[in-house]
Structures are given as structure tokens and as C-alpha cells.
Amino acid sequence: MVRKRKSIFKxxxxxxxxxxxxxxxxxxxxVLKNELRGLVRNTLKEVSNQNxxxxxxxxxxxxxxxxxxSERVASMGETGEEEILDIxxxxxxxYSFSRMGFCREDGIAxxxxxxxxxxSDREYFINSMEGRNYxxxxxxxxxxxxxxxxxxxxxxxxxxxxxxxxxxxxxxxxREMLAVSSFEGEGxxxxxxxxGDKVVDSTHPTSFQNMTNIFTSMKDADGRNYQVVTELQRxxxxxxxxxxxxxxxxxxxxxxxxxxxxxxxxxxxxPVDFMENTSNYIIHRTYFVCGILAIVCAVIAIAILxxxxxxxxxMQDLLYVDELTGGNTLxxxxxxxxxxxxxxxxxxxxxxMDLDDFKLVNELFGFxxxxxxxxxxxxxxQDNCMEGECVGRSMADRFLMLLCYDEEKEVKQxxxxxxEEIQELRLSQTMEYILHPVFGIYYMITGDxxxxxxxxxxxxxxxxxxxxxxxxxxxxxxxxxxxxxxxKQLSDQIEYAYQNHEFVVYYQPKYDSRTKKLAGAxxxxxxxxxxxxxxxxxxxxxxxxxSGFVCKLDEYVxxxxxxxxxxxxxxxLEVVPISVNLSRxxxxxxxxxxxxxxxxxxxxxxxxxxxxxxxxxxxxxxKDEFLQIMEELHNLGFMxxxxxxxxxxxxxxxxxxxxxxxxxxxxxxxxxxxDERGEQIIRCVMRMAQDLRIAITAEGVETEEQYxxxxxxxxxxxxxxxxxxxxxxxxxxxxxxxKI
Length: 740
Ligand code: C2E
Ligand code: MG
Ligand code: MG
Known about the structure:
Elements: H1 2-75, H2 81-92, E1 97-104, E2 108-111, E3 116-118, H3 123-129, E4 134-135, E5 139-140, E6 147-157, E7 160-170, H4 171-178, E8 188-193, E9 198-200, H5 214-221, H6 225-238, E10 242-248, E11 250-258, E12 264-271, H7 272-320, E13 328-329, H8 330-343, E14 347-355, H9 358-365, H10 367-383, E15 390-395, E16 398-405, H11 408-423, E17 437-443, H12 451-468, E18 473-475, H13 478-499, E19 503-512, E20 518-528, E21 534-535, H14 537-547, H15 550-571, E22 578-581, H16 592-603, E23 610-615, H17 617-621, H18 623-636, E24 639-645, H19 651-657, E25 662-665, H20 667-671, H21 676-691, E26 695-698, H22 704-712, E27 717-719, E28 727-728, H23 729-736
Parallel strand pairs: 13-15, 17-18, 20-22, 22-23, 23-24, 24-25, 25-26, 26-27
Antiparallel strand pairs: 1-2, 1-7, 2-3, 4-6, 5-6, 6-7, 8-9, 8-12, 10-11, 11-12, 14-16, 14-17, 15-16, 19-20, 19-27, 19-28, 20-21
Helix pairs in contact: 1-7, 5-6, 9-10, 13-14, 15-16
The structure holds ligand C2E and magnesium ion (2 copies).
Residues 508, 524-525, 536-538, 541, 550, 553-554, 557, 581, 583, 613, 643-644, 699-702, 719-721, 726 line the site of ligand C2E.
């Protein structure tokens, strides 16, 4: 589900990225196109300006030459026509005039090619007679029949105009001038009047042929030009330079600039395609480069993704494959269970399993052998897996199984079979050693979907199975959960209870087996709630051990006992040594020795009145620290009592090395005294202790028979209900006084 959401997110991310890229590219093309269009217009403008300069230079040059000549003619005074014409003929060749002429006020002109014509009705005559230098629109030369432009200038004598001088200039010359190739021969130029009439057209093959009016030609060429013509007319009307795009087979730019002569406009034309080819080329190049970049990016992205996937796979292998057994890790197991939960078609059970004594396997046979055991466990569990089931290892010897079943008893049978197969492994040729697998079973119920909760339930059952110390498995029940909850509540309450002075010290007297006199006592902590209800140490001491709070409790008991002993000594009572329990958790912090010594010194009680009890199983966890602490305590002068002797693992081995003064025979031995083997064991232990000069106290003596038996075999001290139960301080004080 999460993966699906992730990939949807990824695809969405890519799509958004793609859309953004496309928008960016379109926007970029648009900007680029506009920029390039601007560039095109500028180029057109430049070409057009150059053309204008050429035309202006030509026409204005010719006109001013004419004006100069007319001034010369005027200065000649009453000179005859022939003389004037001679001068004109001499000049004519220097300019590109096709003919020149002179006429007086009567309008009868004498031309350089010998003609005499009446020009009195011509525009140029009238304008120049009115004193203006004039350039005519193109007209058809009456003599040559060619299209010409006429330049004219007045000839003045003083303030009065005595005639005019004129010259014809062939439109063809202007056309040739403008036909200079521009835009690689694609461009051409017209000169038109404001009303669209042509002044100079173009011979370019793609220009309007036989054009008389540009508007008409445009409209004839393409229907779309109607709109353009309006735009062009507006432009011409404004007298400002500008451009339009019109159509004559292809789209063309038309750049319009006022020429500054008459109402003429210079028009430069170039196909849109030609101008845009460059920009298209750039744009296409850009697309191409973008495409290449996109491909490169895609290739890099794919390579990165592949590498990531490879790394992920590697990580997953690390995360999912248990290096030691080659099986599933806890993470993989959880995933598998989650997957199966979604498709489960059968009833499912989760089983947590470990060995009761795996630490010992490592201790006795070494890590290599320990690893072999783990592989054997993994293989056995996997061999017993059916379709749809799976196995995983969470840590050390802790394995998990998912089993399918129809009936609960099937699971139990299979577990017993697995246990048997596990026990088939032989660890040593010389030593008989049997593995003890312990299982916790949780049968899933409908609605179970939280893998952590499911595993918690199976673990709870497994804890129960371990604590029970008998049987191979335990099945999770709601009662187990309730008990756990209760434990949790207790452990939460302990600290508060301590501050609330709810802990008190009870004393259980120990008696000399022969004289039956009080020989000592053991201090045992009790939790008396504010409502008077007692909480059993069997319940809260393990919890306090788990949290480490037990150290505080022990210290409290130790201080209470020191102070009580001192008080009783001061009262002159017949004080006997009192042993105080020391939790294994003290091994974590050897500093406690100095604190205990300081408490003892502060109380002023001699050290022989305080003894310390430590269970032998404590040594099993931290052997070296244990030995060192015991040495130190013993050197300080404390008597060391080995509590619960016989319940630990290396009981006999350790007796050699630990400075034990008293051995407390565990109740379980005492209980078995009437059994033949039990009796033999007790006797054996007794003998060994006596050989090592270690005194023996029997714990949990409840009956006269037990007492008699233990006395008969030389047990030194007796502790148990037979003589006395643990009791409050006042009661114990009375016992010391022999008052009860
Ligand atoms: P333990 O140190 O072995 O203490 C002896 C336990 O055996 C006491 O249980 C005592 O009441 C019980 N007992 C003595 N005689 C008999 C008998 O004849 N029959 C039966 N059935 N039981 C007998 P208690 O007081 O419930 O304490 C249980 C355990 O809690 C102790 O076992 C000890 O391991 C731990 N504990 C008690 N007080 C302290 C303490 O102050 N500090 C630490 N660290 N542990 C403590
Ligand atoms: Mg004890
Ligand atoms: Mg004990």
C-alpha cells in the first residue's frame, strides 16, 4: 500500500516536472521567437534606412545640381536659349538625366535633344514658376515614351522668376539602384505614394508584376491581404515607419519608411520564412540541445535510479537476510506476515521461540558451536514450514514462525515435533547435553493487523513459558496479558511506594540446628501498601530487578538493618548476625561497595553483625565482576552467603574460586530430601561444603522430618517456617529477647 502510494507520488512528480519543462520550453521558444522577430525587424529597418539614404542621395543630389545650374543660368542674364542648352548639354552627361530643358514664362521649353515643347500645363512647370524646386511623380515621357521623374527649379532674375530649368530622370535608373540584392537576393524594394500608387516597382520575380497600386496588387494576390491593406493604409496615414505581414504565395514582411520626398514611402519586402529561417534554425537547435540534454538527464537519472535500486536491494538483503542462518531477519519476517495478513485464507498463528539455555551453550561449547546450534534451529524451523508459512530470526537464539492451521491442536503437535527435532542435535561426543527450546504461541483473531501487537502477544506467551520452567510452550491468553498489565502497573508504582515509605523490613530468624538457639536472621523486604495490603516480593522484586530499582531497595534494607542492629546492640540485646540480600543488579555498579561501607560505618555497627546474601545465578552473567566484587566485600570483612544454592548452573565449579562463608541450600533440595536421589544429592553437597569448610544453612525447612534429617547430616543452621516465618521488626525484637 505504502509502496503503491510512493510510486504514484513518483509518477506524479515526473509528470509535474515534465509539464513544467514543456511550459518552460514553450515560453522560452516564445521569448526567443519574439527576440528574433525584433532582430528581424531591426535588420529590415537597417536595410530600409540604407535604401532611403541611397534614394535620397540620388534624388536630392540631382535636384540640388539642377538648382545650382539654374542659378548659373540666371547669372548669365539675357543669354539666348542655344547658349543655355549648350551649357546644359555639357552638364547633362555628368548626371544621370536623360534630358534637360529650359523654358521661359511662356512655357515653351527647349530641350537638350533639340525638341521644343509646350510644358506650360505641366505640374513641374507650374510649381517651379511659383518658385519651388520640384520632383514630380513618375510620368510617361511624351518624347521617349519612358517612365520618368522630372526635376525642376526656377530660374530667377532678382526677385522675379524668368523661367524654369528641368531635367528628366528615368525611373528605370532608380529601379536598378534599388534592385541591389538584399537578404541574399530574397528581398526587394518598392517606392510608393501614400495612396498606394507605385513610384518605383521591382523587377524581382516574386514581387507584384505590373503593379500600379500596391493595395490593389495585395488584394489581388491573397484574400487575407484585405486586413493587411487596412493596416498598411493606417501605417502610411500615420507617416511613421512600421511593418506588416502580407501574403503573396508566401507570407512576407513589408517594412514601410517615409522617404522624405513628396509623399513617397520606401517599402522593403522579404519573405517571412527567410527571416524566420534563422530564428527557426536557432529554435530548432535549442530544441535539439534540449532534447539531447533531456536524453542525457534521462540516462543519468536511469543510472542513478538503477544504482539506488541496487543499493536498496543490497540494503534490503542486509536488512532482510540473516547473515548467520541465511534465513529471514525480523524485518523480513514482519513484512511477510503483513503480506500474508492481507491474503490470509487460513487461520494463522505466530510463534516465538528460543532456547532456555543458549548462553550456556556458548559458554560450554564456544561461539562456533553456538552458531551451529542457531543454524540447526533455523533449518529445523524452515524444514517444518508449509506453504504460506515463514520463519525469521530476531536476535541471538530468538526465532519467529508464522503457521497456518485449521485446529489449534495441530499447532501444538507441530511445535512438539519441532522441539523434538531441535533436540536431536548432539553438541558433544563426551557430554550429554540436550537443548531446551521454549515456544510462545499466539493464535491470531480476526481484526489482528498490527504486527507489533501480534508479536507482543506471542512474546508474552513465550515469556510465560520461560518463567514456568516446565513444558515446551505456552499459549497466549487474555489472563496472561492481564498479569502483564498488572506487572506493568506495579513497576510503575514502585518508585512512588518507596517515597511513600511503603517498604518495610521483615526478619526471618535462622536457628542453630543442634542447640535450636537463634543463630541469625535474614532481612526480607516487604511492600505494605497504604491500605495495608501486602505485595509479594516474588512479584515486585523481579520487576525492581528489571528496572534496576532493586539497588535502591537493597540499600534501604541494608541501612535499616544496620540501624536496627546498632539500636539493639546499644540496648544490650543478644544480637545475632542478619543477612541482607544483594541483587545481581549491583554487579553493574561496583561503587555500591563503598556506599555500603559508608552506611555501615555511619551506623557504627560492627561488620560481623551484617552478612550479605547473593544468589549464585548472579555469577553466571558476569563472572569476572562477580568474583571481584565478592573478593572486595569479603576483604572488607563481610560474611558472604551463597543464596539459593543448587539452582544455578555452575554451582560446583564456582565454589573453588569464590570466598563463600555460608551456603544456603535451596528449598527445592530440602523439599526433595525424602526422595532417594534427592537425599543423596543433599548428602553429597553437605560433604563437599564441609570439605571446603563452608557452613550450611538450609532454606525453606517446613517440617520436623526435614529438620531432623538436615540436622542428622550436619547442617549448621535452619531457616524456614518450621521455626519461624518472616516477621516484622518488633516481633523479631521480642524473639531476640526470648520473649516468645
Ligand atoms: P530468598 O532470599 O531465598 O529468601 C527466602 C525466601 O523464602 C523468602 O521469601 C522467605 O519468606 C521464603 N521462605 C523461608 N522459609 C520458607 C519456608 O519454610 N517455606 C516457604 N514456602 N518459603 C520460605 P520472600 O520473602 O517472599 O522473598 C522471596 C525472594 O525475594 C527472596 O528469596 C529474595 O530472592 C527476594 N528478596 C526478598 N527481599 C529482598 C531484598 O531486600 N533484596 C533483594 N535483592 N531480594 C529480596
Ligand atoms: Mg535470601
Ligand atoms: Mg533463598
